[in-house]
C-alpha cells in the first residue's frame, strides 16, 4: 500500500444530518466530529449525459478480489451496470467524445482515467460473451403500447428502457436500417457496422417491433399512431442538411454533409473528382473530409500522395473548432488540409455546370457571439480563388419535419420539451436531435429519462427523485495515497495503414490487460473501495469489517467507542467519510 501523507491545510467537509451506517445507534445524538458515511457524486457520472454509473463499473473490476469475484464475474457485472443506462457500451466506447474524462479528479494527479477505453472493453466483452440485456422487475408486462418514431440512439434507448419494463414497443424508421446517425452519419472506420448491428439486435431481442422503410407522414400518419398507441416518442433526428445560400451552390457537385455521409454509408456512389473542399468545423465536416480522402486513396495513390486532395474551410481558428480534437489530429495526419479563418462566398462552375472552384473570403475574429466563441468578421477586399471539383457543406442540419407530415415546432426547427422529454402535445414525448444538435450520449440519456417519464405517467407514479448526492472534487481526495500510473493509450493504425485499408476500424482500443489495469486507476471518488485506512488508523476499533462486503459497503461503524479524533476521515483517500 502506498504511504499515506496528510494533506496540508484544513480538509473541508459538509455537515450531514443523515447517518448512513449499519451500526452506531441510529436516532441518538452524534458528535459532528464522529465519522459518517456520505456517498458523493463523482464528477465522471455528474458529467455523463447518459447518466452512467462509471465509478460503479470501474470499481466492480478494480475491487473484484475484495468482493470475492472472478474476472469473468466482475466484467459481467460491470457490463450489467453499464447497460442499465446505456445499451450501447461497445458503440459509445468508440464514438463518444467522453466529457466524463475532462472532469475526472485524476487529472489533478497524472491524467484522467481512460474511461472511454474501458467502456469499449466492457462493451466488446458483452458482445464476445453474447450477454443479454437485463429486464427490470417493474410489475409488467403491461397492456399499453408505445410508438417510437426514429431508430437512432435516442429512439432505441427509449425503446430499450420501456421494453425492459414490460411495455410493447413499435419503432417506425424511414430509412432501410436502424441506427440513425450512428449508421448513416458516422463512417465505418470509426464504427464497424457489425458492432452497431449486434448492440441494436440485443434491444430487438427484448421484443421491440422494428418497422424500417416506414415513413411517418407518408406510409402512416402521426394522428393514426397517436390514436393507436398510449404514448409516442419522437426521435426523427436531424438528417436534413443545410446549405449556405451562396451563388452557385445549387447543382451537381455540391452536397450537404449529412447527405454525403448518408449516401456513402448506404453504399451509394458519389463522384467527387480529385479535389474536394469541405465547409465547416464540426464532427460532420471532419468525418466528410476523411471519408472523401478514403474514397480516392488506393494503394498506388498512397505511395504517391496519400489520395486526392481534401481541404477543410473553417471560418474561425482551431481553438474554436467543435470537432473532437483527436479526429482533427488524425485528419491532419492523413494529409487533409485545413484553411482557417476562411469562408466561401461563391461556387464557380464551367459551361457544363461542373464545379471548378470557389471564391473564398478571408476572416478575422471579432467579439464573442451567442455561442461564446469569437464571431468571424470578413476582412474587406481580402478574397482568393480556391480550385475544387466538389464541395461538401457541413455547416448545419435540422429535422425534416415535412417528411413527418407535420410541423410540430412553431418555427419549423427544434422541438421544446421539459427535462423529462414531455412536449406540449398530450401523450407525445421527444428527444435526440429533434431538440437540437447534440452528442449520441445526450440522446441516449434523453431516451432513458423519457422512458422513466412515460412509465410514471402510465402507472400514475412519481418520477425518480433528483440525485441529491453532494459532488466531490479533487480537493477532497488524498492524492498522495494513490500510486502514480499513466493512463492507457489506445492503439491506432498509422496514417498509411488507415488509407491503405480505408474503411477498416482505425482505432484498435486497448488490450484486456490494459483495461483491467486502467480500472485500478479510478480513485473511487466519494465511495469506499476497502483501502483499510480507517480500519488500520482507528485506535478505538470503531470499524468492523462487514460480513457481506459489496461496493461501497466494506465496514460498519460502532460510534459507542468513537472519541471523535477525526483520524478516519482525514486518512480516507476517496472522501467517503465525513466527520467535521
- Specify the overall morphology: globular
What proportion strand?
A: 15-25%
Biggest β-sheet description: 5 strands, parallel
State the CATH architecture of the domain at 145-239 and 399-459. 3-Layer(bba) Sandwich
In CATH, the topology of the domain at 145-239 and 399-459 is named FAD/NAD(P)-binding domain
Compute the separation of the termini in Å: 26 Å
Strand order of the largest sheet: 4-3-2-5-16
Percent range for helical residues?
Answer: 25-40%
Residue-averaged pLDDT: 90
CATH class of the domain at 145-239 and 399-459: Alpha Beta
- The rounded Rg comes to 27 Å
Say what oligomer this is.
single chain
- The strand count comes to 19
Which residues sit in consecutive blocks of at least 5 with pLDDT less than 50? 1-28, 298-306
SS class: alpha/beta
Tally of alpha and pi helices: 20
Give the name of the CATH superfamily of the domain at 145-239 and 399-459: FAD/NAD(P)-binding domain
SSE order and pairing:
Layout (H helix, E strand, L loop, with lengths): L35 E2 L5 H4 L7 H9 L8 H13 L5 H7 L3 H4 L12 H14 L16 E5 L3 H11 L4 E6 L7 H4 L8 H12 L4 E4 L9 H7 L2 E4 L5 E2 L12 E3 H9 L9 E5 L3 H13 L3 H7 L3 E6 L10 H9 L3 E4 L1 E8 L5 E14 L5 E14 L2 E4 L3 E2 L2 H4 L23 E3 L9 H20 L35 H6 L11 H8 L13 H5 L5 E8 L2 E5 L9 H5 L5 E2 L2
Parallel strand pairs: 2-3, 2-5, 3-4, 5-16, 7-14, 8-9, 8-14, 9-10
Antiparallel strand pairs: 1-19, 6-15, 11-12, 12-13, 17-18
Amino acid at each position: 500500500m502506498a504511504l499515506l501523507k496528510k494533506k496540508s491545510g484544513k480538509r473541508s467537509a459538509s455537515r450531514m444530518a443523515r447517518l448512513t451506517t449499519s451500526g452506531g445507534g441510529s436516532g441518538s445524538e452524534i458528535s459532528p466530529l464522529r465519522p459518517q458515511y456520505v456517498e458523493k457524486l463523482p464528477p465522471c457520472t455528474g458529467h455523463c449525459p447518459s447518466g452512467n454509473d462509471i465509478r460503479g463499473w470501474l470499481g466492480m473490476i478494480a475491487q473484484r478480489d475484495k468482493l470475492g469475484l472472478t474476472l469473468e464475474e466482475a466484467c459481467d457485472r460491470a457490463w450489467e451496470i453499464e447497460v442499465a443506462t446505456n445499451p450501447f457500451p461497445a458503440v459509445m466506447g468508440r464514438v463518444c467524445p467522453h466529457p466524463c474524462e475532462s472532469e475526472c479528479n485524476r487529472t489533478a494527479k497524472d491524467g484522467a482515467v481512460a474511461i472511454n477505453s474501458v467502456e469499449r472493453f466492457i462493451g466488446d466483452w458483452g458482445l464476445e460473451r453474447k450477454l443479454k440485456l437485463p429486464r427490470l422487475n417493474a410489475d409488467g408486462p403491461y397492456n399499453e403500447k408505445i410508438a417510437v418514431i426514429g431508430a437512432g440512439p435516442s429512439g432505441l434507448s427509449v425503446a430499450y428502457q420501456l421494453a425492459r419494463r414490460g411495455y410493447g414497443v413499435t419503432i417506425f424508421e424511414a430509412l432501410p436500417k436502424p441506427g440513425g446517425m450512428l449508421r448513416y452519419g458516422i463512417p465505418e472506420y470509426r464504427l464497424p457496422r457489425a458492432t452497431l448491428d449486434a448492440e441494436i439486435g440485443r434491444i430487438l431481442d427484448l421484443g421491440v417491433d422494428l418497422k424500417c422503410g416506414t415513413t411517418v407522414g407518408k406510409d402512416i400518419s402521426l394522428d393514426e399512431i397517436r390514436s393507436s398507441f398510449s404514448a409516442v416518442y419522437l426521435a426523427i433526428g436531424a438528417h436534413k442538411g443545410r446549405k449556405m445560400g451562396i451563388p452557385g451552390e445549387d447543382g451537381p457537385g455540391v452536397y450537404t454533409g449529412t447527405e454525403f455521409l448518408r449516401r456513402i454509408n448506404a453504399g451509394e456512389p458519389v463522384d467527387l473528382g480529385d479535389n474536394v473542399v469541405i465547409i465547416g468545423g464540426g464532427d460532420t465536416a471532419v468525418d466528410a473530409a476523411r471519408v472523401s480522402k478514403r474514397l480516392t486513396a488506393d494503394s498506388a495513390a498512397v505511395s504517391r500522395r496519400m489520395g486526392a486532395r481534401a481541404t477543410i474551410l473553417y471560418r474561425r481558428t482551431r481553438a474554436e473548432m467543435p470537432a473532437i480534437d483527436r479526429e482533427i489530429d488524425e485528419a491532419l495526419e492523413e494529409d487533409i488540409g485545413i484553411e482557417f479563418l476562411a469562408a466561401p462566398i461563391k461556387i464557380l462552375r464551367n459551361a457544363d455546370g461542373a464545379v471548378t472552384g470557389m471564391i473564398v473570403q478571408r476572416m478575422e475574429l471579432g467579439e464573442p457571439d451567442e455561442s461564446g466563441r469569437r464571431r468571424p468578421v470578413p476582412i474587406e477586399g481580402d478574397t482568393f480563388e480556391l480550385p475544387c471539383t466538389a464541395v461538401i457543406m457541413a455547416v448545419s442540419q435540422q429535422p425534416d419535419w415535412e417528411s413527418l407530415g407535420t410541423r410540430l415546432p412553431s418555427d419549423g426547427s427544434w422541438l421544446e420539451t421539459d427535462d423529462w422529454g414531455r412536449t406540449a402535445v398530450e401523450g407525445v414525448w421527444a428527444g435526440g436531435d429533434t431538440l437540437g444538435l447534440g452528442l449520441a450520449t445526450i440522446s441516449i440519456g434523453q431516451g432513458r429519462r423519457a422512458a422513466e417519464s412515460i412509465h410514471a405517467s402510465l402507472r400514475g407514479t412519481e418520477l425518480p427523485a433528483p440525485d441529491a448526492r453532494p459532488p466531490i472534487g479533487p480537493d477532497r481526495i488524498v492524492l498522495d495515497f494513490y500510486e502514480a500510473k499513466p493512463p492507457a493509450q489506445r492503439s491506432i493504425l498509422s496514417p498509411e495503414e488507415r488509407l491503405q485499408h480505408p474503411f477498416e476500424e482505425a482505432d484498435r482500443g486497448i488490450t484486456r490487460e490494459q483495461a483491467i489495469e486502467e480500472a485500478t486507476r479510478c480513485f473511487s471518488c466519494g465511495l469506499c473501495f476497502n483501502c483499510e485506512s480507517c480500519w488500520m488508523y482507528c485506535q478505538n476499533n470503531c470499524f468492523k469489517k462487514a460480513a457481506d462486503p459489496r461496493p461501497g459497503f466494506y465496514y460498519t461503524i460502532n460510534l459507542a467507542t468513537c472519541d471523535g479524533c477525526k483520524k478516519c476521515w482525514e486518512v480516507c483517500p476517496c472522501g467517503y467519510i465525513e466527520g467535521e
